[in-house]
């Protein structure tokens, strides 16, 4: 592991210029709105100050991690991606036994460090942050990434995959990890929408588009463990897609569910009590294969908490989340956020350490991404 600011991608092998023409052009356009050129003609001091400011802004922009550089590379000459991606396959084969080395060897060339990817020949219609909460599921990471990267790439999305790992021995709190993922990914946005996704669920049909919807959308409707049927009408588990406005409107996820179960039904109550409707694609497009794993310990308080979910909406969620980020690690195919969730400590939003892990596989980096 090396510090992200010392990554080879930031030096001799860096694909992007240290000070880009796009950056200086944008700054000069902004200055032009304030008649800067007239000032420049009058005083050498003003010229020096403006030039210094341009250099500082552009160097700061170029010194960000690789996945941030995407903001500097708008390419309006490219056509917009079609509303229906042309390379969808329909029903997909599921590989459950794929390790990280195999996943990196297959997909490293088309993914930027930290798990970001975007279309190379058109301007994506949507940008998506994929948030995956987990703990002690390292054996499933390779299978998830091996399946999801080509799945999302065929859908012509700008996207990045964030794994949010819970630190410590406290009962698993999936909902709080989803809140952490939203807050941390939001800092690296902007994203049009967020997919909250379990690590052990893989979509079986890429006609199921992870494109943003005007209403919150339930993704994992028909699971293999339920014989590909929706277990009950208000089921909202496994995966869902929400725009930022939806998430803020319901104050994110409840932080009260320690242990398995309940938080997804709580979110259903939040959505439906906030003048929104849950959308679903029809079967068979919403089928998901569940990777085998040990069942987690259930939440002992989930039914009691569900009975009061709507009453707690304004005070239990994003505004009550208490966490600290221990490390943020940029792996070749994803970003891993190790977080400590605290039910009682004061709010802490400090990142202690940020690192980058390089792949052992040598491959050419992708061309600059194209952002709307």
Could you describe the 3D structure shown?
By secondary structure, the chain is an alpha/beta fold. The protein contains 9 helices and 13 strands. The strands form 2 sheets. Strands 1, 2, 3, 4, 5, 7, 9, 11, 12 and 13 form a 10-stranded mixed sheet that branches. Strand 3, helix 5 (138-154) and strand 4 form a beta-alpha-beta unit. Helix 2 (36-42) packs across helix 3. The longest helix is centred in the N-terminal third of the chain and has 19 residues, at 44-62. It is globular, with a radius of gyration of 22 Å. The chain starts with a strand and ends in a 16-residue tail after the last strand. The model is unreliable at 1-42, 53-74, 344-354 and 358-372 (pLDDT under 50).
Quick rundown:
By secondary structure, the chain is α/β, with parallel strands linked by helices.
Output the structural class: alpha/beta
Helix content bin: 25-40%
β-strand amount: 15-25%
Determine the mean pLDDT: 80
Features:
alpha/beta; ten-stranded mixed sheet; disordered N terminus; 9 helices; disordered C terminus; three-stranded mixed sheet
What does the secondary structure layout of this molecule look like, with pairings?
Elements: E1 2-3, H1 21-32, H2 36-42, H3 44-62, H4 100-107, E2 116-117, E3 127-134, H5 138-154, E4 158-166, H6 174-187, E5 193-197, E6 201-203, E7 217-218, E8 222-223, E9 239-243, H7 244-249, H8 263-272, E10 287-290, H9 302-306, E11 323-330, E12 335-341, E13 351-356
Parallel strand pairs: 3-4, 3-5, 4-12, 8-10, 11-13
Antiparallel strand pairs: 1-13, 2-4, 5-9, 6-10, 7-9, 11-12
